UniProtKB/TrEMBL annotation:
<dbReference type="Pfam" id="PF00497">
    <property type="entry name" value="SBP_bac_3"/>
</dbReference>
<protein>
    <submittedName>
        <fullName>Amino acid ABC transporter substrate-binding protein (PAAT family)</fullName>
    </submittedName>
</protein>
<dbReference type="InterPro" id="IPR001638">
    <property type="entry name" value="Solute-binding_3/MltF_N"/>
</dbReference>
<feature type="domain" description="Solute-binding protein family 3/N-terminal">
    <location>
        <begin position="69"/>
        <end position="299"/>
    </location>
</feature>
<keyword id="KW-0732">Signal</keyword>
Length: 309
């Protein structure tokens, strides 16, 4: 079964204003990289904001952010949200880095990205090791008790199977008795666990979990047949199939009724409010839609940014 989603670009789109760079050490050792200009390895000043007059007034309301250096937590390897390429392993590209650039350009702050495992993102934000998290992070009730969010995208999840879908995984009920490659800490991991419990309540075999710390490990487990499927954001899932069509196939969509957000520490409401003001104006001016279109997201995924606290 093939699902219908917007077509993702297979080549890396050009930089909107600047790329998010990680040093090679950051990619390999979870260190921190810096924000730099497109095509230039050195640090640069913020690019021109999308609405100069609005941003100039907003900076007056948030002078503490002008010239500030903010650290942003992220996990690369998540499709068009954040990824690196072999030819530029120190450059993080995607929707989330571009969103941070848009906000920073408007408010006048510079950003460095801290690469870490997905399960470490929220704890890093809570402890103050990072100022923001921009990393394909679903807004859930549990997470909202720990951090605040500014929403920016509606999403769905999807199941990806081995080539040809040999287990005929076309619905949630069909997952009973299978082996799932799961990424620890994700919403999809919770969905799979709940479905496994549903299988067992109905007298069928549950879902055997293979838990990994990174998406590429879950993809590899499915590709090699260790797992029957993995579940992730629908856009990421679609991208994975396009990158490995000889090994992977489409399963089915799962409507999670969730949105994604940029996360902030609950003690930094001023920063949260400033990010919200920028994204609300960017949505009204069309700049947010332009970024989402650039990275292949559909019109039905656009939402009005809101604060979830």
């Amino acid at each position: 079964m093939r699902w219908t989603l917007p077509t993702y670009r297979t080549e890396a789109p050009k930089c909107l204003s600047r790329s998010t760079r990680l040093t090679t050490a950051a990619v390999l050792a979870l260190a921190v990289g810096g924000m730099t200009a497109c095509g230039d390895g050195g640090a640069t000043e913020a690019a021109a904001p999308f609405n100069a007059s609005f941003c100039a007034e907003l900076r007056k309301s948030h002078p503490e952010l002008v010239g500030a250096e903010l650290k942003v937590g992220t996990t690369v390897g998540q499709g068009n949200f954040e990824f690196i390429t072999p030819d530029e392993p120190d450059v993080v590209k995607g929707l989330d880095p571009d969103l941070v650039s848009l906000v920073g350009d408007c408010l006048g702050f510079r950003s460095t990205f801290a690469q870490m495992e997905f399960t470490g993102l929220v704890p890093a934000l809570q402890s103050g090791r990072v100022d923001l998290v921009a990393s394909n992070l679903y807004v859930t009730e549990e997470r909202a008790r720990k951090v605040d969010f500014v929403t920016y995208l509606k999403t769905m999840s999807a199941v990806v199977t081995q080539k040809g879908n040999p287990r005929k995984l076309t619905s949630a009920d069909a997952l009973c008795g299978t082996t799932a490659a799961q990424v620890a800490g994700t919403v999809e991991s919770e969905i799979i666990e709940k479905q496994s419990q549903s299988c067992e309540r109905s007298g069928r075999a549950g879902i055997t979990p293979l838990v990994f710390s990174a998406l590429d490990q879950a993809v590899a487990a499915t590709t090699t047949g260790r797992a029957d499927f993995f579940m992730n954001d629908a856009g990421i899932a679609k991208s994975a199939v396009e990158k490995s069509p000889e090994h992977l196939d489409h399963g089915f969509l799962v409507d999670t009724n969730l949105v994604m957000g940029i996360a902030t520490n609950k003690n930094k409401s001023e920063l949260r409010d400033a990010v919200h003001e920028v994204l609300v104006r960017a949505e009204a001016d069309g700049a947010l839609r332009e970024l989402q279109r650039k990275w292949g997201f559909g019109e039905n995924q656009l939402i009005a940014p809101q604060i979830v606290a």
